[in-house]
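FORM 7B: Structural annotation worksheet

SECTION A. Query
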Amino acid sequence: MRFFTLVAIFVVAAVEADKVCNVFGDPHIITFDGLKYKFEGVCTYVLAMDCTKMSWIVYGRFETCGRGTCLYDISVFHTSQGARDAVYIGRGWVINHEGSKVPYQKGQDFNIGNLGFSFDGLYLKVTMETSGVTLTYDGFTGLQITIDGTVQEGLTCGLCGNNDGDTDNEGSQLRDIGNDVEGAQLSGIEELVFRWKVDRGDYCDPPANKDYSRLLPCGNNYRLNEAARTACQEIVDNQELFKCHSTLNLNTFYEACLADFCNIDILTEAYPVPCSTASAYSKQCQMLGANIQDEIWRKEMKKECPEVSVTQQGIIGIGVEQPGDGPVQA
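SECTION B. Predicted structure
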């Protein structure tokens, strides 16, 4: 009996939990290992990749979104059993494959080569099953990259870090793009970000770490500071979201909300900052195993989350031009 008990314990311990890299807002990044940082920089960056075989790569392009920069589109490359597939996914959930936009509908599961897709009307899920990687994209500025236990520790690269369990060495990765870090005279987070910018046309400014004050997130604008605190308080007061607080610190997202409230000035009515920030929190929580129900936390947000159909149409309205029979049926 002891023998079987020991075997059972060993098997459970050998199963690694999923890890999530969260990219959202202006932009905030929480790495696979849990390092939290933000930066400013209009450019394309490697968000995450397989650092050894390069069997999968996720790029993110960031563009101006008011006084800050936000995720605008992503590109996904995946190789499985010798077959390589690539898709571009633009704001508004628009999928482009081999130069053509792919029409699809809410509730439809489909495949493009070795990539699996599903869409529930607000979140587009992309699955690289053979590599243990899943993407969840809200069509706007929020992207969660989930890796399962089959992805070896220490063998990812990009802005999402190296996945070795240590938040203090995210800049120590097996490879980088080869940007001249010494010539740029950068260090810390700016150096990490600079290493992964894809700047073939040499048009990107060096990334910058933006000053932020929790007491005065909007500078000396008293009314805007008060509005930010009132609106973002709905996140920490949300009982459904708070169920995950012991797993993922809700205060981190409250502070992100304060900063973004003052800097993001697009979709302020259709997808307000507190709502998009809460969305990024809920998705990461769900991927970490928390029982968070989207319909419940959205209702508890009271003023800061409109109907899903309003958000859908708002995102489509500022996004990439849709294919003829666009993906969203509100």
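SECTION C. Observations
The first strand starts at residue 19 and ends at 24. Confidence is low (pLDDT under 50) at residues 1-15.

SECTION D. Sign-off
Analyst initials: ____
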